[in-house]
Amino acid sequence: MTKSLTNSERDQLLQDLTFDQQSYLMNTLKRGKKTAFANVIAKSKGRIIPSGATDEEIGMLLDDWILDDYLDAGVVSEDVKCDCGRALRYQYIVRHVKTGEMRRFGINHFEEHTGLPATIVKEVVQGFTKIDYELDELLLKRQNGSPTYDIPEGLNLPADIEQPLSLQLPLLDRQERRLNSLIRAYREEKEALQRGSNTLEAVDIPTQKKEDLKVKEALPKEELQGSFDLFAEETQEPLPEKTSEKPKETYFVGDLSFTTQESVDGYIQQGTESALMICELLIKEGKVQDKRYSTKKPKIYYAVCTYLDSFVASGSMSVEPLGREDRIYRLKSGQSS
Q1: Long-range contacts of 175-180 (CB under 8 A, 24+ apart)
Q2: 256/264 Cα distance (integer angstroms)
């Protein structure tokens, strides 16, 4: 487990960084806390906020309090105060999406100023602490000598991995695992191309490992079936044909109604890349029914992924699987879904 730094230790290590490095880490810290806050609120409503969700996407999905800003004054300052008048170093600014009301307070006054239940506030604080631990992990890694990464030439990296590397900052352990997965998939693709076998399986679906199979076995039976429908290599049975008697919102795994497809296309054009976020937005806006697995993942997730995979197969989009949690779909330059 990563050592937890004291405020003074953290401040000292931050001072050793360049201005650009400090700015990047502080923005990442702020974004992480916004997502952590939103995740707890979403969870209380039975929803999921994907990792990497933008402020705009969070605002689209929630109608309640969201963390609008997080300030670190460096020291306890009379210029940064709680709504109760107490001087603060760390100030949390929350905004109510529906009313636009803004409130400012320290970590100990979340419950008092938002009216959120104590259990929710406790989860929020735990989420913030986890984000602080990740900052400590990066600072300690850099102090101990940043590791080097053998990145193949031509591999396009996601922004959250490319940016710290361009600033000579280390990656978090979880980012390193993602990077290793991307490198492995890229090399497998190159090898397949050299063999003259440029199949969808080789390009877009990482080779399964024994560990992955064990995870599948541990999933609830109902969700396990959906995952096999999406990723299985065997030929699937033909999907049932739609008839005029079925309502428009009826869908099958791998098949969305035309109106739902148009909505998915719209989210992609607006810049939403997370398949999970697209599902949550479809549910939030009443375009599909809110049916979920016991893990809280929307049942429509596999249908959305299969639909978007058709654009990957045609070459107009790329996909980055984030383990079993989510899949990121990006339009290629000059393309539209």
Answers
A1: 176/147, 176/149, 178/322, 179/149, 179/151
A2: 10
Residue 252's pLDDT is: 46
In single-letter form, the type of residue at position 165 comes to L
Express the helix, strand and coil content of the chain in percent, nearest 5 each. Answer: 50, 15, 35
- 151-170 confidence digits (pLDDT tens): 998 888 888 899 999 999 99
User: What's the chain's Rg over C-alpha atoms?
Assistant: 22
Residue keyed to tokens 């990563």: 2
Cα–Cα distance measured from residue 307 to residue 255, given in angstroms and rounded to the nearest whole number: 7
**Range name among 8-12, 129-133, 237-241 with the lowest pLDDT average:** 237-241
User: What angle do the packed helices 301-314 and 258-269 form, to 10 degrees?
Assistant: 70
> Which residues, in sequence order, are CB contacts of 96 under 8 Å at separation 6+?
64, 65
Q: 337 with 316: CB under 8 angstroms?
A: yes
Q: What does the pLDDT read at residue 118?
A: 85
Percent of the chain with pLDDT over 70: 80
Distance (Å, rounded) from C-alpha 224 to C-alpha 217? 8
Among the listed residues 214, 212, 230, 226, the one whose alpha carbon sits nearest the alpha carbon of residue 292: 226
